[in-house]
Design goal:
It is built from 5 helices and 4 strands, in the order αααααββββ. The protein is α+β, with helices and mostly antiparallel strands and about 140 residues long. The protein has 2 domains: about 45 residues, no CATH class; about 90 residues, no CATH class.
């Protein structure tokens, strides 16, 4: 500690002036690097909305597949639930009904996302006594 104080006291004002802060060039280089990083990172964050919508639609599709399997198994076990044959019966089979923003029409469940992207789950083959409903997705 004493060496540090002694060193500071023996440094001339001229040397001390040269050791303070950053030069203008160093500051400009740091700002330039931050600008480049921001330009590279910004497109990644802009695309997150589309990726989130696709992930949410994939989640609804997986839930629909599970609901179809559970509905078929329950019917095989003698519970006599309504067989899945349309978008409406598929929505009813989902716990809580169709998710917010999804609507049943004919043989489909449909959601329109941002940028007017359509996400569609179709009952391509109705449930029978020997097979669960077959679902397809389109997005």
């Amino acid at each position: 500690m004493m060496d540090l104080i002694a060193n500071h006291l023996t440094t001339s004002p001229r040397e001390a002036r040269h050791q303070q802060g950053f030069t203008l060039i160093e500051l400009i280089m740091v700002l330039l690097l931050l600008g480049i990083l921001a330009a590279v990172a910004a497109p990644k964050f802009i695309d997150l909305t589309d990726e989130a919508e696709v992930a949410a639609a994939n989640g609804v599709y997986a839930a629909a597949q599970s609901a179809a399997a559970i509905n078929f198994a329950a019917n095989r076990a003698g519970k006599s639930l309504t067989q899945i044959s349309s978008g409406a019966t598929l929505a009813d089979a989902l716990d809580g009904g169709a998710p917010d923003g999804w609507s049943a029409s004919g043989s489909t469940l449909t959601h329109t996302g941002s940028n007017n992207t359509n996400y569609t789950i179709t009952v391509s083959s109705a449930e029978s006594t020997s097979a669960k409903a077959q679902l397809t997705r389109n997005w």
